[in-house]
Specification:
4-stranded parallel β-sheet, 13 helices, globular, 247 residues, alpha/beta
């Protein structure tokens, strides 16, 4: 299985250890991983701000980079969601449609495609609050939304449950937005900051030592809010935990 690894621009710039953990994890579970060196942004920030024309170049480059891969995997729910649902600034050729259909977020790729359920090398002896970003939760349907009366499922937790030593704690509002929202945190800074503060306080009150998420953008926002509030929380992307980072 040939996998094209897409590392979001903000992960590449600020959290390269998450990209490395994703690569190592995919190789551990038997994937042949290719990392196109010309990759940049998928175009999501521009498209989310209503600037579709500005997203055109990034989207076209994304397609050129990954057209030859059987699967495109990224450690970002919002990027995967953008490619699958909103990569529309460019002409929708058969190649573009194919790339969009073959793009997966890391957790759903492990859970749904590879059906991995055991990570014998992983140990994380900490109390963990699990955060699933809005695009991952409601766009990719990786867990049940609390406002919808459906049978419960949670793909990130299903993977993490096999990690030795991990203990889950439950915040009062587990699927409430943390306030990042991409460009929302720029244009609505006071609201975003308050939402982030409420989110990290909820995890703190639940007894979490770490907040773990498949969405590093959310963790970046929450980390800043926790530091400003003086809360002793730590943050890890799910790829780091599943890859065996004991923190």
């Amino acid at each position: 299985m040939k996998v094209g690894l897409f590392i979001p621009c903000y992960v590449d710039a600020f959290f390269p250890e998450v990209g490395i953990a994703t690569l190592e994890l995919l190789e551990r579970v038997g994937c042949e991983v290719d990392y196109p060196l010309d990759q940049t942004c998928c175009g999501q920030p521009m498209a989310n701000s209503g600037c579709e024309e500005d997203a055109r170049g990034a989207e076209a480059l994304f397609v050129r980079n990954f057209a030859a891969h059987d699967f495109i995997v990224t450690p970002s729910g919002s990027c995967a969601h953008h490619v699958r649902r909103h990569l529309t600034a460019i002409e929708q050729t058969p190649v573009v449609s194919q790339v969009r259909a073959r793009t997966w977020e890391l957790v759903e790729f492990l859970h749904d495609v590879l059906e991995v359920r055991e990570f014998p090398w992983a140990r994380f002896p900490h109390k963990v609050g699990l955060h699933i970003g809005c695009a991952t939760l409601r766009g990719l349907n990786e867990a049940q939304c609390s406002e919808i009366g459906e049978p419960r499922w949670n793909k990130p937790r299903a993977l993490l449950e096999s990690v030795r030593g991990i203990q889950f704690v439950e915040p009062r509002r587990p699927d409430e937005c943390c306030g990042f929202g991409g460009t929302f945190s720029v244009f609505e800074e006071p609201v975003s900051g308050r939402m982030g503060h409420d989110k990290v306080a909820d995890h703190r009150d639940a007894g979490a030592d770490y907040v773990v998420s498949p969405d590093m953008s959310c963790l970046m926002h929450q980390k800043g809010c926790a530091e400003r509030a003086g809360l002793p929380l730590k943050f890890r992307h799910i790829a780091q935990v599943l890859n065996g980072d004991p923190a």
